[in-house]
Structure formats: structure tokens, C-alpha cells
Amino acid sequence: MKISNPVLTGFHADPSMIRVGDTYYIANSTFEWFPGVQLHESKDMVHWNPLPAALNTTELLDMRGNSASGGIWAPDLSYADGKFWLIYTDVKVVNGAFKDCTNYLATTEDIHGPWSGPIRVNGVGFDASLFHDDDGRKYLVQQTWDHREYKHAFHGITLTEFDVETMQLKPETARTIWMGDDVKLVEGPHLYKINGWYYLFAAEGGTVWTHQEVVARSRTLDELSFEASPTNPFITNFDTPRSYLQKQGHGALVDTPSGEWYYASLCGRPWHHETESFTDPRGWCTLGRETAIQKVEWDEDGWPYIVGGHGGERYVEAPKDAIETVAPETRNQHDEFESDTLDPRWNTLRVPFDEKMGSVGGGSLRLIGQGSLCNTFDLSLVARRWQAFDFDAETCVEFDPKTYQAMAGLTNYYNDQHWSWAFVTYDEDRKCRVIEVAQNDRNNYTSFLRENAVVVPEGVERVWLRAKVRTQWYTYEYSFDGQTWTELPVKLDAKILSDDYVNQTYGGFFTGAFVGLAAVDYSGYGEVATFDHFDYKEL
Predict the structure, then answer these.
(1) How far apart are CA 381 and CA 386, in angstroms?
(2) CA–CA gap between residue 278 and residue 274 (Å, rounded)
(3) In degrees to the nearest 10, what's the CA dihedral of 186, 302, 3, 111?
(4) Are the CB atoms for 142 and 162 separated by under 8 Å?
(5) How far is CA 439 from CA 120, 255, 377, 519, in A?
(6) Residues 6+ apart with CB under 8 A from 439
(7) Taking phi first (over 0 means left), then psi (-120 to 50 degrees means alpha), and beta for anything else, what does residue 31 get?
(8) Which of 71, 75, 225, 521 falls 20 to 30 Å from 511 in CA-CA distance?
(9) Which long-range contacts (CB under 8 A, 24 or more apart) does 421-428 make?
(10) DSSP 8-state symbol, 501
């Protein structure tokens, strides 16, 4: 078997991979999207099955009001003492001098949950992980944040002993074990003890084209005792701009039962417009940061290296002892909303789907209009990841607004400042319902059709809407019968829904594009939109 990278397509950033017996698990960042921390399992590293997300209650995670790309940063999954341990960070401030965050711990004996906790651990810095030493002691390892403008904000890797009796840290034991190298931005630390050495894996260079993973090691856990590998970077694509995979770096190391080694890291797959240079800009990763797995071997001096070179490979030999895993196809989606709970592929922003947003079941999803798609507190939106560069997404909505302040339809969404949608609303001049297309680009809002918005004929109860995404561009279509479709005369640039575009002007750029259903009624009267199906079909 061959591992085909990326193994988790679409927004699956910052993988934390572990093995328990013959089974591998991956936990991924989810940022402001709810539920928090996506989980997958496999016995062959080739086929991955989704598991219930770990943080599915507001007791475990309440992100209401969190800024875009705040929330869950780089969770760490580990297994010791007969249970799974999950360290996760809720980041409340993304931009500026401060990164206000809280690190929490939750545990479970069953990966399917429920998870106990949360136990508040600290707020020293994000990307925290828990290291279980072979002498029974445990340590929190984390990036350390420094707000002082005359210091570098990434102030090394801090190690603090964790007391399993009190389930709290011992702050007096905190020490800096490594400051990183001259690439700076050292983060995402994971510790491993192998052949008497403590190996520290850490990311550097920021989660952009300069991203990389480096390795250091020490015989002890003393302050500043780690030395960097002479073969660093361990993995990067900074100097391989034509590689299929880009941005590889932040991730986790795992061994197989027979003693092979693999490394799971985030990655990106950029595309270009025909008029653009292949290297500057390097491209647009509309699927966000995905998860790739590379084979690892060790040199004669005990340093790890990526098989095939530090740029990694698209196709990788699966473990020799892999147990073939059956993984049903889950990327294409047809939902007729028969269940009274949402399909697990759906996500909401910051808080779980509840009665304020609407209800589901009996063949429809009913969304109660709340705030605009710019709202970070009260928003009625359900969405799923883009997982392919080319796909169609379709829905049908019944909506009878009486004000232009009420809107409902199909959206392609990156964050509250970058999104578009085709929607049904009310035109007070023509005194009828219309279909409009609008885009928010760097928080600049544009209505494209205006006086040419398509009139919904009297007597038509339902409007079909479809998005056609074709890598670089996407369009919207409408139908009044679900059979005859008309393209709306707006061609939108998909790059606006990418980390790389957002990064040009804004400090939060860590997620990926989503497609979904939304209802807005900022008049405050809660107009209800009823959706009877949703289709997502990759081409």
C-alpha cells in the first residue's frame, strides 16, 4: 500500500499523531470552528476514519466572540496510564502584542468520548503538549509568548512539570529548554525519549512558505540543554517551490509496532492563476492546511531524517505491518436532514448548533436569521470543509423575507472578513423577493447584481442555489424547479478564501474554505429559512 498525501484533505492543520497498540490516531486544530479538535483513526496510515470530535460541549469549549483564527490551536493527543490525554489551547486574542490564551486538559479512557474536564492548566503560551517520561513524571512543553515589543514574541520552549496527584502544573519547575535557531518563530513542540535521548521536535518560520520543522536533543531536561540537529531543517518546502506539497512542518513523530518511523505534518497545496508567477506569489491554498505523512529513518549519529529529502514525497510506502483499514467514502455528502442531529461533517462557528440557530430533522434544516456573516457572537450558519479543488454544492431554500435586512442562502466562507454567498432577500423598491450575489473581501462588501437582482416569481415557494467551484474561480447558479439552472453573472476569485490571501493584510490566517448554509436577519425579527437538502459532490 501507498500513503497518498495529503491523507486528510481540506482544513486539517497541526496534526498530533500517536499509536496505541495497532491503531494510529490523529488530532487536528479547528480554530474558531465547532466542535473542537477533529479526530481520525487508522491501522494502515493510508485510510482514515473520522471519530467524534473531542470538544463537543460548551463546558469543554466556549468560543463565543472569539476572533477569526482564534480558538483551538494545535491540540496534543497522547496516551498513558490507560487513558487518552488531550491538551488544547483556546486563543482569545489573535492580533497585536498579546496572545491571550488558556491551555486546558481533558482525558478519556475511550477515544469516542465523553471527555472529562476541562482542567485549566496555564496560559504561558500556545501549542502545548504533554510529555510522559519513562520514570512516570509528566511535563507540559509549550511555546512561550512575550508581548514586549523589544523582545521576540516567540520566547523559546518552556518545560514545566505536571503533578498527576493534583492534576496541576508546578510553576516553580518551569524552565526554558530551547530557544530555537535564527529562523525564529519556534512553536509546536513535542518531546520524545528514544534510546536514552530526549528529542525535541519544533516548528519554525511561521505557518507560511518559510515553514519548517527542526529537531534538537539532550540527555537531560535541564535548562537550555538541547542542541540542534546538524541536518536541520528536518522537513520544509521553503527551498522546494515546485513540490506538490508545500508548507510542511508542524507535526508529530510516531513509531510502528515493528519499529518503523513516520512523521505527520501540516501541508498546503497551492494553485496559481495563469497570469501569475509560479514562485511569487507561490500560490493560493484554498483547501487550507492539510495533513501529510512522511517516512522517517535515522542516521548513524542518531538524528532523524525524511526519506526522499526534507521536501517530502507525495506517495510514501505504508508501514510493513499495516493492517488494511476499511474507510467508507465520506467526502461527498448528500443530506436530506432526516435526523434530529446534524451530520458530523457540519460545523458551526464558535458555539454548537442550538435552538437560537434553529432546528433540524424531519426532512429540513430550519435556520433562524440572526447576525450577519461578519458576526462573531450570534450567527446561524452550518458549513463543511472544502476538500477538493473542484466540486458542486447545492441546496434548496424556502424563505419569505419582508425586509432587505433578512437574507438566506448558500455561502462559501473563510472568515468573518472573507466570504461570499448567493441568497434570497427582499427588494423594497420592487416589493418582491430577489436573488442576489454578494462578497465580503477584506471586509469590503459588494452587492454584484443590485437593480439586476433576479426576481423570484410570485407563487414560487422554493429557490434552488448551486455553487460551482473550479479551483481558481467559482460561480453561483439558481433554479426555480431544480431542473433548469441559470448561472448568475458573477465570477469570483477563489484565492480570496485562502490563508495566503488573508495573510497579506490580516494576522489570522489558519483555517481554510468552507461551503454552507446561512440565514441572516439583523432586523432582529428572526425570519426563518427552511432548507430541504444539501449536496456536496467532488468532480
Answers:
(1) 15
(2) 9
(3) -70
(4) no
(5) 39, 46, 20, 15
(6) 419, 420, 445, 446, 448, 492, 496
(7) left
(8) 521
(9) 421/373, 421/518, 422/465, 422/467, 422/476, 422/478, 422/488, 423/465, 423/518, 423/520, 424/397, 424/399, 424/456, 424/463, 424/529, 425/401, 425/453, 426/401, 426/402, 427/453, 427/455, 428/403, 428/404
(10) H
In 81-153, the DSSP E strands lie at 83-91, 101-108, 119-122, 129-132, 138-145
Print the SS3 string covering 220-241.
CCCCCCCEECCCCCCEECCCCC
Domains with residue ranges and CATH for the chain: 2-317 (2.115.10.20), 333-538 (2.60.120.200)
Task: Indicate the DSSP class of residue 523.
Answer: T
Q: Is 437 helix (H, G, I), strand (E, B) or coil?
A: strand
Buried b (16+ CB within 10 A) or exposed e, 359-374: bbeeebbbbbbbbbbb
Residue with cell 487536528: 28
Residue 199 host element (H or E): strand 197-204
Grid cell for residue 432? 418582491
Rounded Cα distance between 115 and 144, Å, is 27
Each residue's pLDDT expressed in tens, for the chain with a length of 539 residues:
999 999 999 999 999 999 999 999 999 999 999 999 999 999 999 999 999 999 999 999 999 999 999 999 999 999 999 999 999 999 999 999 999 999 999 999 999 999 998 999 999 999 999 999 999 999 999 999 999 999 999 999 999 999 999 999 999 999 999 999 999 999 999 999 999 999 999 999 999 999 999 999 999 999 999 999 999 999 999 999 999 999 999 999 999 999 999 999 999 999 999 999 989 899 999 999 999 999 999 999 999 999 999 999 999 999 999 999 999 888 899 999 999 999 999 999 999 999 999 999 999 999 999 999 999 999 999 999 999 999 999 999 999 999 999 999 999 999 999 999 999 999 999 999 999 999 999 999 999 999 999 999 999 999 999 999 999 999 999 999 999 999 999 999 999 999 999 999 988 899 999 999 999 999 999 999 999 999 999 99
Residue with cell 520566547: 155
User: What is the reported pTM?
Assistant: 0.98
Would you state the cell numbers that stand for residue 10, as one nine-digit string? 481540506
Distance CA 15, CA 150 (A): 32
Residue of 157, 531, 200 lying closest to 364 (CA atoms):
531
- Cα 441 from Cα 10, distance rounded (Å): 21
Q: How far is CA 115 from the centre of its chain?
A: 20
Place of cell 505527520: 264
Annotated catalytic residues are 14, 187
